[in-house]
Design goal:
By secondary structure, the protein is mainly alpha-helical. The protein is about 70% helix and about 0% strand. The chain is elongated.
Amino acid sequence: MSHLNQTLFLLLNAPTHPSQLLIEIALFFAKYFIVLVPIILIIGWLRGDEGTKKLVVMAGMSAIIGLIVNSLFGLVWFHPRPFAIHLGTNFLPHSNDSSFPSDHLTFFWSVAVSFALSRQTRLLGGALIVLGLPVAWARIYLGVHYPFDMIGSFVVAIAAATICKDKQHYVVEPVFKLLSQIYDKVIATSCPQAKIKR
């Protein structure tokens, strides 16, 4: 499996002298495109009704659970990044922590899958899952992840989102109530028209 992973990596990784335009495109997806996710969550919270806000909380909690799972993976099994073993090329400076699974994609896809599991936001979730693919490609192309890191991220994202949906009474409801109280007291106090929609 390790040999296959490295072989696939070398097929997708940037050549020694790549197109500068392609590098810039990859850097955009690898570093900045993830900002789309918190923007969607913030808009969903500020403009949505109670049901939408709960979906936002569920998506956020899915991402947190996914990242915790990733941390446990890193503690149990350290997998060096490609540049750490001098494999391929690297065009994105990165700390030499464990590569598996990708935190970047786990965050992105946990939110995406969480939305996809709810009828109300299924199209948005599906779109975000697809939009995660160029992010996955970019991080392989720039030399900080292997293809299997991305597959691992998707599996973790599915597991995290499924847990949050199945156990939302224990996971989502308490966090939603806490955030609603904070929102009402801190934000809605100075802007009454922004008070949470119920």
